[in-house]
Amino acid sequence: MRFDADLLETLGALLLVKGGMAKRAAATVASHVMGNALRGVDSHGVVRFAQYREQIVEGIFDPAGEATVTSSDDSVIRVDGGGGHGVPAMQIAAETVLERAREQGMATATVINCGHTGRIGAFAETIARGNCLAVITGGGSHARGKPKVAPYGGREGVMSTNPYAFALPGGPTGAVVVDFATSVVAQGKLLAASKTNEPLAPGLILDQSGRPSTDVRDYYGGGVLLPAAGPKGYGLGLIAELLTHGVLGDPRALNWIMIAIDLDRLGAGQPYQARMDAYLDWVKSSAPAEGFDEVLIPGEPEQHCLAERERNGVPVADEVWQEMVTWADRGGIDLSLYPPRLP
Amino acid sequence: MRFDADLLETLGALLLVKGGMAKRAAATVASHVMGNALRGVDSHGVVRFAQYREQIVEGIFDPAGEATVTSSDDSVIRVDGGGGHGVPAMQIAAETVLERAREQGMATATVINCGHTGRIGAFAETIARGNCLAVITGGGSHARGKPKVAPYGGREGVMSTNPYAFALPGGPTGAVVVDFATSVVAQGKLLAASKTNEPLAPGLILDQSGRPSTDVRDYYGGGVLLPAAGPKGYGLGLIAELLTHGVLGDPRALNWIMIAIDLDRLGAGQPYQARMDAYLDWVKSSAPAEGFDEVLIPGEPEQHCLAERERNGVPVADEVWQEMVTWADRGGIDLSLYPPRLP
């Protein structure tokens, strides 16, 4: 089933307002979710509306919690999510850190005390489109129990999938956005495999005794996820965890740090955008490997999907739609007034 | 053969002085090289003395080139290596960016126009030991021909092994230092394999037709090295290349960017060091996986080796020692005055 994106966004925002969120915050979250859905990042797409609505009931975030900039010296901006949803907190942080970096060359923002922050590549892209380098990382949830990623050489979970995003302006989509988990795969892939019990690729998980396994049941039976590229993913994950827990304290979900550096200042008059674009063109025109049609610039698959879904609507799985219908019914929303289904 | 580190350092510096380097710059390089050698990073250890001496003859760097801070606004420090060796340039950049970050919360340094910069983890460690987060990356050499790392999904070299280093203070060694190539392995490993023609692990290289191979001869016969963790290493490498070439221009060897952020400012009075150390203790005490004796914190293997080699001397392969003897003879150095060999 395909749905019109604008109408899904309106409905999603309304569900969150019915859960107690302020209209503006709900609109920020819904716009972010639909941005992900349009870009094909379905793990952070429409499925999240019902999940966020449930998280309000479960007390995972406070629908009335409001993100504010609590302090701001020359170089460090602190954002407190007020216990609310993470997307408005990250949005304020990205906009403020970008503004500050444009003024004085560089700035850092910290974000604490908020719920799920959606797709961090979106905030990195906001910063990059302001002609800055963006670096974002998050973590700290080991302090809240059940870390699921092992260190290199270890068999117990000590980290979360601590993601990083890097972004720069330019290229075929206007921004090169690199956004990845420091674990070898995202947890969503294991969840999907658990529904079919198909064997996993080797090198993804250890069973509860610390032995390599390709049976996803071993992961859910007390096993762990491995770090990406062994010591590399472990090192990146550890740095994220130390920064966001060690330096910023216990998180509500995860804590975050965002760095923005103004390329105009860094480049000191160099024709950086033309040189970056020429390089990206050259990379893009290089020969694909066996099994690939073309070389893609990070952010490009999402941009391709965006163009297609803006034309044809956003596909939504039946069960995801049914969850939204259930919440709409509970909230007394007359779905005939919000007919998101495409003809 | 094991040698006394101090005497090797003296001899190494003297070789570089005989090649035309100023005493102070030669001492900086020799101290860095022996720091690597003591830590077991032999790819950046004693083998480099003869290599750097040869690079002077080949014109790869100018022995008389002097690194200077060419401009410095509030947040961006520019270091020009003056065409000289890269280690003194990186050392000045690390010390200056740390000082500036301690003053105003954060700073960025750029380093251009220099030769080989040694082990970047060492400069990240300098910054971390000043209670700052350090982030360093370098690249740009695709513009100088023969890039050897393919993009994800590609089969032509478009990047170098663009390294990253991240560091924070604390833990069992006083600094957590994460330092890695964005390619799946370092080129040194392939060079070592080429001497024995042992099969490589799968997933490291493609042959010249873009097909996966485990025969190292395929790499040297026009093949490419793959990025670490596929799209993750590709993304990180691309960001490095865009920053250091796009923003900073054509490099002599590689160009560099260094970011320092003061943790005292970032943590705003949080007891960050105690919390970081408690977390690292907990990670360290977690159970090892099959085939491992213990979980190590990044930087710890190097620190273990340092303690052992400070006691027992630094092992040097015969052929590496013979190269140094050859250069010493050409420079008229009386080796009996510099008897580095341990009894």
* Overall body shape of chain A: globular
| CATH architecture level-2 label of the largest domain in chain A | 2-Layer Sandwich
How many helical stretches of chain A? 12
Span of the ends, CA to CA of chain A: 10 Å
Low-confidence stretches of chain A: none
Q: What is the strand content of chain A?
A: 15-25%
Residue-averaged pLDDT of chain A, rounded?
A: 94
Q: What is the CATH domain class of the largest domain in chain A?
A: Alpha Beta
Write the CATH fold name of the largest domain in chain A.
Ribosomal Protein S8, Chain: A, domain 1
**Radius of gyration of chain A over all CA atoms, rounded:** 21 Å
Q: How would you describe this protein?
A:
The structure is a homodimer of 343-residue chains. Chain A folds into three domains: 1-63 and 288-341, Hypothetical Oxidoreductase Yiak, Chain: A, domain 1 (Orthogonal Bundle), CATH 1.10.1530; 65-183 and 227-267, Malate/L-lactate/L-sulpholactate dehydrogenase, NADPH binding domain (Ribosomal Protein S8, Chain: A, domain 1), CATH 3.30.1370.60; 190-226, Wheat Germ Agglutinin (Isolectin 2), domain 1 (2-Layer Sandwich). The mean pLDDT of chain A is 94. In chain A, the strands form three sheets. Chain A has a seven-stranded mixed sheet with strand order 2-3-4-11-5-6-7, with helices on both faces. The first copy, chain A, has a three-stranded antiparallel sheet with strand order 9-8-10. A two-stranded antiparallel sheet of chain A has the order 1-12. Chain A has 343 residues and is of the alpha+beta class. Chain A has helices spanning 5-18, 23-38, 47-58, 86-104, 120-128, 187-196, 216-220, 231-247, 263-267, 272-284, 300-312, 318-330, and strands at 2-3, 68-72, 76-80, 106-112, 132-139, 163-169, 175-181, 205-206, 212-213, 224-225, 255-262, 314-315. The first copy, chain A, is globular, with a radius of gyration of 21 Å. Chain A is built from twelve helices and twelve strands. Chain A is 43% helix and 17% strand. At the A-B interface, β4, β7, α8, β11 and α9 of A face β4, β7, α8, β11 and α9 of B.
